[in-house]
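INTERNAL AUDIT FORM
Audit reference: QA-55
Scope: verify that the stored structure record matches its stored sequence.
Auditor: D.O.
Record contents follow.
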Amino acid sequence: MANNEGLTGIFDFTFTKFVTPAIVKILYILVLVFGGLCWIVSLIGAIFNGFAAFLFVLVFGTLAFLMFVLLYRIMFEIVMVIFAIKENTDRLP
């Protein structure tokens, strides 16, 4: 059963409702915000260390941010696939 009632499944001690599908979207937004803030702070810090450091962080920091977001996206999608498999197997006779 998918949880369509928000986070009320936290207090479901029978585990008939899953909380994870509801919070994956929130967690992904938090990952994007956290990664973006880290990239901006690194970029600002690199400005004070010279032009070479700025270019380094601009190039490699951007690549690191993209890899960070991509890896978390893949991880969250794997979790969602596992829940989709569970829901599909519940429908089997």
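Auditor finding: record pair retrieved intact. Helices lie at 20-47, 51-90.
Action required: none
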